[in-house]
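for the record, two folds in this file. i put them one after another cuz i was lazy. first one right below, seq on top, structure tokens after. the second one comes after a little note so u can tell where it starts
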Amino acid sequence: MYVRLPLGSAVSGGRSSQPPAARRPGAGTRSQSYCRFSVRSERTMSSVPVAVVTGSNKGIGFAIVRAMCKQFPGDVYLTARDPGRGQEAVAKLQEEGLHPLFHQLDIDDLQSIRALRDFLKEKYGGLNVLVNNAAIAFKVHDQTPFAVQAEVTLKTNFFGTRNICTELLPIMKPYGRVVNVSSMASSSALGSCSQELQKKFRSNTITEEELVELMTKFVEDTKKNVHEKEGWPNAAYGVSKIGVTVLSRIQARMLNEKRKGDHILLNACCPGWVRTDMAGPKAPKSPEEGAETPVYLALLPSDADGPHGQFVSEKTVQTW
């Protein structure tokens, strides 16, 4: 079996009745929750900053939502595939005096992604912060055939994340922040790839189409049981996260080319080895510690010009 980091019909929630001093990501780092809101007309909603965290009803995603509710000057959406589990997670944070909102999201379902996109466009006129946290991983000793593990893992971790970005990046507002949660497993998997594959994945000119072809080839090679011969490691999760990291580098390049003046910053990051259902109880970091780097990147101040297109761990840019 594998463990899925959960993914994310809107419910009431809100923001503090005290107006925040700034309206852009990273403008405030106050401990007070800004996820509450007082009664306001729908006409004014487009001026309200909004953040979305995928896969956030437990684990690192849940910790990211908790931290964002305390620091982000706007509405924060916790998302989950299962509305019941999502509502339970929202209730837990409400018990802490925080007020996240909820929207259903399954990143394996394009219709679900587009429903969220349309909701954000209609209610907020776009999106300020996107944290792509949703992911799955098979357990180390799982007996599921490796080809099945590869197909299932890449479907969510790479192709699902790519679909989210395809639909939501076009509605990112100026000074927006995008965080694609990757893993140091991407670096270790990259080091286990053939030199030819490493060169392709480290290229500063690789296109999204070429990356999709490579990720698809990995899945097909596992089905033919020739993946090692073709230069791939025996690491479905690691390869999926290579895809996420390289996709982030490509997306940042595209933002530079097409929306340079909008000052949107997009990065991949590693939260570290965190005690979650996916990583197990022996990991050294708590979910709250794992959330630190993703939240740091999500709240980069509006006058920051970087990091952008980087792989970040412990709030530090890493060599890819």
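(here's the note) second protein begins now
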Amino acid sequence: MTLLWKILLGIFLIGRLSQGQDEDLLNENIEQAAVGEGTEGGEEVEEPEGPGADVSQPDHRQPCAMWMGGVPGTPGHSGKPGRDGKDGRDGPRGEKGDKGEAGEKGDPGEKGDTGPAGPRGFPGNPGLKGARGESALSYHSAFSVGLSELVPATNVPIRFNKFFYNDQHHYDDISGKFRCVLPGVYFFTYHLTVYTKDAKVSLFMNDKAIMFTFDQYQETNVDQASGSVILRLEAGDEVWLQVYGDDAFGGVYADNTNDSTFSGFLLYPAIPVSARRR
């Protein structure tokens, strides 16, 4: 690009130089012709007076058509950025864009206050019939025993040796104690014949006296003493009867026509939750 500008500038200077030489040659010819005419006539030619009468100086002004356009100048530096224009008016609302991807799950917020209770709902449909549960009849524990003679000793368990019912063998005639196998609620009762002396009997549970029964013997009479209680037992608990006190209170009696009995049975078992059928 720089070489092109140099070539154009050289052409322009050569043209101006040629134009100046032609003008100088023309002026010399005009002067020689004027000198020749004055010599031939023998008279000097007077120069015209007045403004604009000087014809010896040629008019260097040329018509516009004779002018030559100049070489374009070097582009100027970029101007400073103009001021920001005023904000334009809001354009029309665009179409709804596509739904973006779901963001990451945020941290749990703080627990809000408990709201007011809502209105009571409608009753639900009845549920399905549940599975058959455990029957209390499937758990058995019962005994009923009696004496065949006068109690021989006091402050020890009374050993009943006549059996009316003891199918589960939960009553032990050797120790004279009922031993719980099935935990639950039990009912115990006793009916004793009192003869020849006073009787004081206590019902024990695990070496602790639970209740007492006392009967004062009347001569020539056969008395009766009785008692009953309901107890909650765990597996391994033991229950028994014994004469409480010294030999003076050992009037518990039995023979062929008079009985002294001790009975007990399970009212309902305590079934663990883990063992219940669902």
